[in-house]
Write a structure and sequence with these properties.
34% of the residues lie in helices and 19% in strands. Helix 5 (94-106) packs parallel to helix 8. The chain is built from eight helices and ten strands. The strands form two sheets. Strands 7-6-5-9-8-10 form a six-stranded parallel beta sheet. A four-stranded mixed beta sheet has the order 1-4-2-3.
């Protein structure tokens, strides 16, 4: 998998990826970034291969502001059914897709699955997650039949109250079209997030963050 940018490489390394090759257009700058933003990874960045800009573009496909990129194998991580799995139902915006994975990793979700034709490991999705694909399992959904609750988030649902079960699947619709008919039909319950009147919707990443935070605070209480 292509890892674009310092932070994407940083997170991949932190979660066990073997990044080879690790490329940079300026080794001293890459090491300085590690010293200031990832002191635990200075040794890894000191082993990066310094290449000229033309070689970097040939290998990566374009330049990057940090002058850092790398390649790593896709990890095989087990889904944790002791934490909610996030289902992204036909997401269309690759940056939002990646940002939702980043939020899910930060809130320790059990994994992220998706429907639709967008590859969840597309380089632009991976860039949007800042490499946090390597922190939790990310895959396509094989079906919408799950053990445990399938809780769908939609504007016309009942207000989300009470705890979310640890083994739930939390479904969020696409930015434009919302939840698919199949997701709604198979949902155990349909809920909505608190929202002020006249505000039509939240960004996908915000919705995922709010849903998982609701699970986390009720779990801790």
């Amino acid at each position: 998998m292509l890892l674009e940018g310092f932070h994407t490489v940083k997170h991949a390394l932190r979660f066990g990826a073997e990044v080879r090759p690790l490329l940079t257009t300026n080794l001293a700058d890459a090491v300085a970034l590690a010293e200031s933003h990832a002191p635990d990874l200075v040794a890894a960045f000191e082993q990066a291969s310094e290449v000229d800009r033309a070689t970097f573009v040939r290998e990566v496909g374009r330049t990057h502001p940090t002058g850092v990129a790398g390649f790593a194998d896709r990890p095989e991580l087990p889904f944790d059914r002791n934490a909610p799995v996030v289902l992204l139902d036909n997401p269309r915006n690759l940056g939002n897709f990646g940002a939702a994975i980043r939020v899910a990793a930060g809130l320790d979700a059990g994994g992220v699955i998706s429907t639709g034709d967008v590859d969840p490991w597309h380089p632009n999705v991976l860039r949007g997650s800042a490499g946090l694909h390597f922190a939790l399992p990310v895959a396509r959904a094989e079906s919408l039949d799950f053990d445990g609750e399938l809780i769908a988030f939609d504007a016309d649902g009942d207000l989300l109250k009470g705890p979310i079960p640890d083994n739930a699947v939390l479904a969020f619709g696409s930015e434009r079209h919302g939840l698919s008919a199949e997701a709604r039909q198979k949902a155990t319950r349909i809920v909505r997030l608190p929202m002020r009147d006249k505000v039509s919707s939240y960004n996908l990443t915000t919705s995922v963050a709010m849903g998982l935070y609701h699970w986390a605070i009720h779990r801790a209480s």
